[in-house]
Design brief:
It is found in: Microsome membrane. By secondary structure, the chain is α+β, with helices and mostly antiparallel strands. It has 24 helices and 33 strands. It is elongated, with a radius of gyration of 43 Å.
Length: 801
């Protein structure tokens, strides 16, 4: 059914300060320039130089004083003026052709007051020909007035302009901060400057050299790039242009590096330029409306029923809800932007009409929220909204019906039964209480105060999210905005049932913005390092349950979609691999039945290992840390075995010593594994004190010696007193003594000897007495003394007494 265009009266201007003067200027001067503040509260009217007083009027809707200014004949009036949306107050910027800039503010006292005055062109060597005020910046095109350039030929004089930028931000309660000048373009022609919420358009003017009249530039400050476009050629080229990095371009050099743009073409025949959220629109003298998008592409939107008669005729362009609105004289035409079809044509009561953009997203008041997205039309009669009227025959469903319809779709997706769940069943079935509670709220059964108290936190979060989206739409600090938006979305998804679309969406966020997503996880899980290389968390158990949970049986995620725990491990492995083992250890301390930590499924360390890849392709350091931190006997023994193969003796010993006394069997197995290596070679000798500490306290010396004997290398030849050069030294009693001491009890036992070998541990303190020395003659007289001499050896001692 065909829609009907409507003009809804928003204000008869009586609620603006200086309403009479406002109506007078709107009705009397067709050349007046009209601008609206982003919050919609201020209207700025600037008359051309030479007009009768006042040349400047700022009207305020609601409380606040208007500002009227006039400049006497002979004194220059401002070239342009802008309203800036500063948080604490409204600001007005006036720019003169000489380069003088004045910043006025309201809200810091009664009326308006001058905050700062400065010069854009110190020394008087330039003349400002165009100026614009994109978000947080002041950009102007100036003509250099050097004497040498004035004597050059026309082609050289055509490149005597340059485009400059300075940051302009509030400072304190009543101050401004105007940054240093940065030159964007050198040696360029005269450009007109138009700005949308995200981009700055540099368009040719009537004084632009004809050979360049078909070229325009699009600068995106948030992206740090400039696009040079030739709409009639269908060509566009992008280059880096970021003042923060010191980028600047010589316009002539820039064009020489872009083939095809200097092809001979007629200048663009433009009657009216209009920046819109979709890009830059222009109306030519044939009545055709074209659009240049921010990436440089261009297309024809449509053709008006009536073309502008001359340059003096008034025209205005604007867009709303996919519709192009064009005011040409006293005619309003509405065209479909996708097809170019004329939707409606209206005759207005006046030809003094101005189109105003709607307030920026997030800056509307409660009254304007109801008319969000519509285009506003200003005349001396009043302020109107251009929109579409819904046909009477089209009945919209009630809020209560919409609740039950959406709830039935939601519960149907979660249900396992084949029968269709209907809204009528939800109304009568008491099992589903949530939609019935929401419906009762919408019906007014809950008082507004109780409802506001319940939803206060949610409304505050929602408003913050809407303001964040508005910043992204405006192109203000895009990187920080996307990061914050990703954090909000991850936190929201963790409060839902992570399955199906929600799980896929979580995977997409982690792939697109891994750093922001992990930052959200840090906040949700409240992760903090404890200073000892471990992590601690104060998150409630239900949050950990969603993070550690696995997909239900028969509902495995599709290929490429990871469960939450595997997704976190993959992200952490990419960003901070050294924190992956502590995170898995912390996750193992959480959990409950079926959570993935203590349930019958795979243990968490094995789920984390699966994220690292197949066995043999994983990073060795991470794999060892995950195995050692798992607390599982088989995994720890596997890790110690790998350390032994790498001959990392100290770490293998420390892994055994790190086990708590509640794991005596595992410590004993690690000790036996390392004792076998100690028996085979001498590369563990330097770590013998650690091996002694690892020795089980209940191990008897006899058991120790039997273990050593099992792993001693076989002797193929009789032992030699000294090893061959280059051969492995054998195990000696001196090395063995320390281990045997560790297995024995402290001090000599008072009871019977417990072991056959235990007596060798005890030190008698003093050596046995030395036998008396005798001569050979005395020895023959006492044959019993020969027992002191070894067999086959004689005693060659002399009596000294």
């Amino acid at each position: 059914m065909k829609r009907a265009g409507t003009l809804r009266l928003l204000s008869d201007l009586s609620n603006f300060s200086g309403a009479a003067r406002l109506r007078e200027l709107l009705a009397g001067d067709p050349a007046v320039r009209v601008r609206c503040s982003p919050d919609g509260r201020h209207l700025l009217l600037l008359r051309p130089p030479g007009s009768p007083a006042p040349q400047l009027l700022v009207a305020v809707r609601g409380p606040g004083a208007e500002l009227e200014s006039a400049w006497p004949p002979g004194q220059p009036s401002p070239l342009d003026a802008f309203l800036l949306p500063w948080p604490a107050r409204s600001a007005l910027v006036l720019v003169w052709e000489s380069g003088l800039v004045e910043v006025w503010g309201s809200g810091v006292g009664p009326g308006w007051r001058l905050l700062q005055s400065t010069e854009l062109c110190p020394g008087g060597g330039a003349r400002v020909v165009a100026v614009a005020a994109p978000r947080g910046r002041l950009v102007w095109c100036e003509e250099r007035l050097a004497g040498a350039e004035s004597q050059l030929g026309p082609p050289a004089v055509a490149f005597s302009h340059r485009v400059c930028v300075r940051t302009l931000e509030p400072s304190g309660e009543a101050g401004t901060n105007l940054g240093s000048t940065h030159i964007l373009l050198h040696h360029c022609p005269a450009f007109g400057l138009l700005t949308s919420r995200k981009d700055l358009f540099l368009v040719p003017t009537a004084t632009t050299w004809p050979g360049l009249g078909h070229i325009l530039l699009i600068w995106s400050p948030s992206k740090g790039k400039v696009v040079v476009a030739g709409p009639c050629l269908g060509l566009s080229h992008g280059k880096s242009l970021n003042p923060g990095r010191g980028d600047t371009w010589d316009f002539r050099t820039l064009l020489r590096g872009l083939p095809g743009l200097l092809s001979p073409r007629e200048p663009l025949t433009v009657h009216t330029w209009a920046p819109t959220p979709q890009g830059l629109m222009w109306l030519d003298f044939r009545g055709t409306v074209s659009l240049v998008q921010p990436h440089g592409g261009s297309r024809t939107v449509g053709t008006l029923q009536e073309a502008p008669a001359s340059l003096a005729g008034s025209a205005a362009l604007g867009t709303f809800h996919g519709t192009l609105a064009c005011v040409l004289g006293s005619t309003l035409e509405l065209l479909d932007m996708s097809s170019g079809q004329l939707l409606e044509r209206k005759i207005l009561s006046t030809d003094r009409v101005h189109l105003l953009e709607p307030p920026a997203p997030g800056m509307e008041d409660q009254e304007e929220l109801e008319t969000r997205g519509g285009l506003r039309l200003l005349s001396a009669v009043g302020l109107f909204q251009v929109g579409w009227k819904t046909p009477q025959s089209l009945e919209l469903p009630s809020a209560e019906d919409m609740v039950f319809e959406e709830a039935s779709k939601y519960y149907q997706r979660r249900s396992l039964r084949g029968a269709q769940l209907t809204p009528e069943e939800l109304r009568q079935n008491s099992t589903f209480r949530a939609p019935q509670a929401l419906a009762s709220i919408l019906q007014g059964h809950v008082s507004p105060s109780a409802l506001l108290a319940t939803l206060r936190a949610e409304l505050r979060d929602y408003r913050g999210l809407e303001q964040l989206k508005a910043q992204l739409v405006a192109g203000d600090e895009e990187e920080a905005g996307w990061t914050e938006l990703a954090e909000h979305e991850v936190a929201r998804l963790l409060r839902t049932e992570l399955m199906g679309d929600q799980l896929a969406q979580l995977n997409t966020i982690f792939q697109a913005l891994p750093t922001a997503a992990w930052g959200a996880i840090l906040r949700v899980l409240q992760l903090q390092p404890d200073g000892n290389g471990h992590l601690r968390s104060q998150a409630p158990p239900d949050v950990w349950k969603k993070v550690l949970g696995v997909t239900a049986a028969g509902k495995e995620p599709p290929n490429g979609i990871l469960p939450p725990f595997e997704l976190l491990c993959q992200c952490l492995c990419r960003l901070e691999p050294q924190w992956l083992p502590p995170f898995v250890e912390l996750a193992q301390q959480q959990g409950g039945p079926g959570w993935g930590a203590g349930g019958p499924g795979l243990p968490l360390y094995r789920r984390a290992l699966a994220v690292l890849g197949e066995e043999g392709t994983r990073p060795e350091a991470l794999e060892l840390d995950l195995l050692l931190g798992s607390g599982r006997p088989k995994a720890v023994l596997q890790a110690v075995g790998q350390l032994v193969q790498k001959e990392q003796w100290e770490r293998a010993l420390e892994a055994g010593l790190a086990l708590s006394p509640s794991s005596p069997l595992l410590r004993s197995e690690i000790f036996k594994l390392l004792l076998a290596e100690f028996a085979r070679h001498r590369r563990l000798d330097a770590h013998l004190p650690l091996l002694c500490r690892l020795c089980p306290p209940d191990l008897a010396p006899a058991e120790l010696l039997l273990l050593l004997r099992t792993h001693l290398p076989d002797e193929l030849e009789p032992p030699a007193p000294f090893p061959e050069p280059g051969a492995e030294p054998p195990l000696t009693v001196g090395l063995l003594r320390a281990l045997l001491k560790q297995t024995g009890t402290q001090g000599r036992a008072s009871g019977p000897v417990l072991s056959l070998y235990e007596d060798i541990l005890w030190d008698p303190g003093t050596p046995p007495p030395t036998p008396p020395r005798v001569s050979a003659l005395q020895a023959s007289d006492h044959p019993g003394l020969e027992a002191w001499a070894p067999s086959g050896q004689g005693l060659y001692v002399t009596d000294t007494g």
